[in-house]
Amino acid sequence: MKTDTIVLGAGIVGTSIALNLAERGRSVVLVDRRGPGEETSYGNAGLVERASIYPTAFPRSVKALLDVALRRNPGASYHWSALPGLIPWMFAYWRASAPARILDYARVMDSLLVHTVTEHQRLSAASGAGHFFREGGWLKLYRTEGGLASERAEFPLARHYGLTAREVSIHEALELEPSLRPVFTGAVLWSDPHSVSSPGGVTQTYAAHLPQLGGRVLRGDARTLARFCAGWSVKTEEGAVEAPNVVVALGPWAMDVLRPFGVNLPLQVKRGYHMHYRPEGNASLARPILDEEGGYVITPMQGGIRLTTGVEFAGRDAPRSPVQLDQTEILARGLFPLGPRAEAEPWMGSRPAFPDMLPVIGAAPGQKGLWLAIGHQHLGFTLGPITGRLLADMMDGVTPVVDPAPFAATRF
Ligand SMILES: Cc1cc2nc3c(=O)[nH]c(=O)nc-3n(C[C@H](O)[C@H](O)[C@H](O)COP(=O)(O)OP(=O)(O)OC[C@H]3O[C@@H](n4cnc5c(N)ncnc54)[C@H](O)[C@@H]3O)c2cc1C
User: Fold this and answer.
1) What sequence ranges are listed for the domain FAD dependent oxidoreductase (predicted)?
2) What secondary structure does DSSP assign to 27-72, as a single string?
3) Is the minimum distance from the CB of 251 to ligand 1 under 6 angstroms?
4) Is residue 59 pLDDT above 90, yes or no?
């Protein structure tokens, strides 16, 4: 089978790329070993986090570092065995998190973020996924005055980028979310983000639209990627597919396919867990809630209230250790009347992350016809559709919607 472009990985990133290319008249085959949207793009907190101009930075203060090291911060955990291999990556992450570099990060990230809600709206209108989306922003809760003060310090930059963050009283927070219990001292409503009731459902609905644009979704193992004449081939359940262009959008698994071609990039993972709960009685949520110092998010989803945990530094394939879920569940039960767990086992996924906290979007160095869209870390669900548009612009050789230079793989 011959096609213009093979897209490897049917998460939100690969699916959005395939749709953008197909909309422009390219023939596209989207290949995944599972169904679309069944991995990281399934299990996230469902935020289209348009307002995330501040990075999830490496802790800078001694106290914050000690809190992580001594496991006093439920938002971060680690496996001892993973740390030696992570030292160079962690050092680069620490350097990229320097306060002096935050303004640059915000400028670069906002160039993508400003398009995130509109690009999701465009794909959801075309594919019929609108019913998954809700407005209303998200509510961040603070248990200490110090935590609230550091959030307030973000307001001026947020205003600079046209974002709306408003401190609300406990009374107003409880009016917005009547099922919460007042175990917090302050709250901030960020109005610009949107959220969804099923990120996996959104990705599947986007992918289901691809055949209407002439594309195909096939099962196959991306590790069978090989050079073929002047292009590329990959084996699928329906036979080999050949194309002059291939896009690697394999999220946490990207390096399994890229390393054999000599493309070495510092991609690591930040693992996370989720669990669904039935709310007790008539309790409900209207939007995602971040308990900042508690280190978790609760989001209303089709499957119940989804509790997602913070970061675990561990090998992608290392055994699960959902201690953060156990810790944060106690805090979340104090905040919201969570009923019983709805699943026997927690879900686990891996945020694919580069140390400078930016994705790689663009051509693979030295590999004609090989394109990359990887490393979207904490914001992949948010950034998938604009990544698709940007990469399609680059592949088409038209003026890109966003300056792609900061996302080039050659920066490493
Ligand atoms: C707990 C948690 C909460 C999060 N919350 C948010 C949030 O609220 N908002 C947000 O924007 N982001 C969030 N994220 C991040 C977001 O989920 C990811 O950045 C995003 O899903 C990455 O998408 P992707 O398409 O790159 O990867 P994936 O969704 O993982 O897709 C990669 C695909 O590649 C396929 N694949 C892998 N290996 C092979 C192979 N050998 N052959 C064929 N196919 C293969 C997989 O099956 C998979 O479908 C969260 C992440 C976690 C873990």
Assistant:
1) 4-394
2) -EEEEESS-TT-SHHHHS--EE-TT--S--PPP-SHHHHHHHHTT-
3) yes
4) no
